[in-house]
Specification:
Layout (H helix, E strand, L loop, with lengths): L8 E2 L1 H6 L3 E3 L7 E5 L2 E9 L2 E9 H6 L1
Antiparallel strand pairs: 1-5, 2-3, 3-4, 4-5
Length: 64
């Protein structure tokens, strides 16, 4: 699994295996992960179930 798909459900272990690094960001009510130049936003559904909400470029994220 190399490509993440929007609206797909992932476990924390899968995200770690893919090399995503969790970021702690204030004022954002989602789990945010980064890898390379992409920022991934996940909605936590259950204890270990995360739905990929959206993916944006890191540059766009910091321009907000």
């Amino acid at each position: 699994m190399n490509t993440l798909i929007r609206n797909q459900i992932y476990s924390r272990r899968q995200l770690e295996e893919l090399g995503l690094e969790k970021s702690k960001l204030p004022r954002i009510d989602m789990d945010v992960y980064k890898k390379g130049d992409k920022v991934y936003f996940f909605e936590m559904l259950e204890q270990d179930a995360y739905r990929l909400f959206t993916i944006i470029s890191q540059q766009s994220f910091y321009l907000k």
